Amino acid sequence: MNYSDSERIATVLENLKIKKTTEIKDADLIIFNTCSVRQAAENRVLGQGLNIKKLKEKNPNLKVGLTGCMVRQTSIQPSQDEKKNNHKIKFQIDPLLKKSPWLDFVFRIEDLKQLPLIYSQLFSQKFKFESESASLTSSKISNPKIQNNAAVVRVALAATLQQSLAATLQQSLAATLQQSLAATSQQLSKSPTPPLPNPLLQETRGFFDSQQTNQLASQKTSKPEARSQIANYFSIAPKTQNNFSVFVPIMTGCDNFCTYCIVPYARGREVSRPWQEIVAECKKLIANGAIEITLLGQNVNSYQDKELKNLPPPQPSPFNEEGVIPAFVTLLRKIHDLPGLQRLRFFTSHPKDLSPALIKAFAQLPKLMPHLHLPLQAGDDEILHRMNRNYTAKQYLQLIKKLKKARPDIAISTDMIVGFPGETKKQFENSLRIFEKANFSMAYLSKYSPRIGTISAKFEDNVSHEEKTLRWQTMNEILKKTALAQRKKMLGKITEVLVENYKEGICIGHTPEFSNIRFPGSKKLISKIVKVKVTEAAAWEVRGEIY
User: Fold this and answer.
1) Which domains does the chain have, with CATH numbers?
2) From CA 319, how far away is CA 269, in angstroms rounded?
3) CB 396 within 8 A of CB 376
4) Under a CB-based contact definition with an 8 Å cutoff, are residues 326 and 297 in contact?
5) What gap in Å lies between CA 427 and CA 424, rounded to an integer?
6) How confident is the model at residue 205 (pLDDT cuts 50, 70, 90)?
7) Which of these, 177, 149, 157, 196, lies nearest to 17 by C-alpha position?
8) pLDDT tens-digit map of 153-202
9) Nearest 5 degrees, angle CA 215-CA 236-CA 216?
10) Would you state the torsion angle of the CA atoms of residues 15, 21, 25, 26, taken in this order, to the nearest 10 degrees?
């Protein structure tokens, strides 16, 4: 999602006639696009302050902004006079600006169309907007069109930063969570329980008012104004890094409220794009040369569109009734059938929403690549329950069995957290057994770190850093074995590779199973699908030669 968001940010900046630079030291404008993975990652992005301070000493005109999951309210850093004269200023700006004075502005990604207005204020440019009287925080700024631009600013767009950056949530969330935690603690038992409550913020002044929060907590999607805001953000055409392999977001937000995750609070509730808009964007991208499309969402399996036929009600079980065709599968089929498309992928899926119809799609849709990223997070049922994942380890393994029956060559990758609060050595051993049985082709392992504003942040973080590191290393050793075993199966086989990059005589790309592959070739092969014979296998990649 963040990669796709960065492409939309690039579109807005390009429309402002801002030029991109490859060196951060040459920039007059830097934008960090963050994602919410771990608390340690948040600390890393906030630790950029010293480097930015040095850059600002060399270039006093440098402006630095931040977007993504760390931001709760679109805001500009107040001047010293404003800080002195306005005692309410602390309720009108995002706390990040107070916490990190090296930041000049922050904006929610849904407010991307307000970036030209922010830019005009920061650089004192005289622009004419559709709404001359609109304020920075006004939700009525639908599309501020620039009619005049006298300045050209070099920019280093510090895109995604992928998993090295993360989100923050203000301390005001923590107080609210105390009440919900009391009720939650009664649910964290071994017996089956309904999903945990959604501890949305009740009173945050500059972030959500109580009326908005109560409405969000009681509805499947955000209120109409929020939906309109997100629609405006999605309507910005992305400035794709290449035209042959592209990303298309189909939804944003999350309704699952896993106890360790900040996304529902940072991104908001689930909002799906209209299917016609998604298909139209895909058609345009294909006409522009796209042969591979990756659909994106925090949980694509829960995509909803009332206009699609056979739209099912939300399914609480990973084993939906046969014959039910979820909206996502219908959307997948529509995109799959577009002329010119050769490859189709999607990220990310929640196990509890993986339907039989989607499993069948892997067998029935030849353009749908044989790879699925399916986060497990833990292999012990009690830990899964404390995470509010709403499936068991046995159910997860049953899903993998069904997937491999439908598509024998499918590769499964996953996410795992070690050292979750209360995880005993026995429970970790359970996770190791499930992890090994699943036979993953790749896994993204992380050591648990508490996120302010999540339910698990109120749990006792009683697994030491040393023990977390040991567990991470133990699981990583198993991953090396399973990943190597998966790639050894490819030896001697002919595979089709989409060439994405080239360096020093070597072509780099991905197999249909999403394995990294390298082989000797020429730069002209970039964007082409090439037949390659696999000759070498390692844990993290394979190598080959043109067939």
Assistant:
1) 2-164 (no CATH), 171-218 (no CATH), 242-369 (3.30.750.210), 376-487 (3.30.750.200), 494-546 (2.40.50.140)
2) 24
3) yes
4) no
5) 5
6) very low
7) 149
8) 334 433 333 333 333 222 323 333 333 333 333 333 333 333 343 333 22
9) 5
10) -70
Tokens of 130: 């559709």
Q: What is the CA radius of gyration of the chain?
A: 24
| C-alpha to C-alpha distance for 266 and 429, rounded to whole angstroms | 33
Mean pLDDT, rounded, for 69-97: 70
Residue 409 CA to residue 538 CA, distance in Å, equals: 18
Rounded Cα distance between 48 and 44, Å, is 7
Please answer whether residues 113 and 144 qualify as being in contact, where contact means their C-beta atoms are separated by less than 8 angstroms. Answer: yes
* Greatest CA separation for the chain: 73
Cis amide linkage into residue 348, ω under 30° from 0: yes
DSSP for residue 368: B
Answer yes or no: are the C-beta atoms of 250 and 303 closer than 8 Å.
Answer: yes
Q: Read off the tokens for 59.
A: 């270039």
Nearest 10 degrees: Cα torsion 284, 290, 294, 297: -30
pLDDT tens-digit readout, 241-264: 789 999 999 998 899 999 998 888
Asked if 528 contacts 291 with a C-beta cutoff of 8 angstroms, the reply is: no
How far is Cα 407 from Cα 397, in angstroms, rounded to an integer?
15
Tell me the C-alpha to C-alpha distance, in Å, between residue 79 and each of 54, 232, 341: 20, 30, 51
529-537 vs 541-546, strand pairing mode: antiparallel
Distance CA(361)–CA(329), nearest Å, equals 7
One-letter amino acid at 272 equals: S
* DSSP per-residue letters across 375-396: --B-SSHHHHHHTT--S-HHHH
Provide the 3-class DSSP secondary structure of residue 92: coil
Q: What are the Cα distances from residue 264, in Å, to 199, 255, 545?
A: 10, 6, 45
Any idea what DSSP says for residue 283?
H
Answer whether 186's CB lies under 8 Å from 42's CB.
Answer: no
What size, in residues, is the chain?
547
Sign of CA dihedral 109, 247, 239, 25: positive
pTM score: 0.73
Strands (E), 264-305: 271-272, 292-296
Measured CA to CA, the distance from residue 7 to residue 383 in angstroms comes to 37
Tokens matching residue 537: 């296998």
Of all helices (H) and strands (E), which one includes residue 303?
A: none
Torsion of CA 117, 119, 123, 128, to 10 degrees: -40
Query: How many other C-beta atoms can be found within 10 angstroms of the C-beta atom of residue 477?
Result: 10
Is residue 241 within 8 A of residue 280, CB to CB? The reply is no
> Residue 344 pairs with which residues in a beta bridge?
293, 368
Structure tokens given for 527: 């964007």
pLDDT for res 262 = 84
Rounded to 5 degrees, what are φ and ψ at 184? Answer: -65, -40
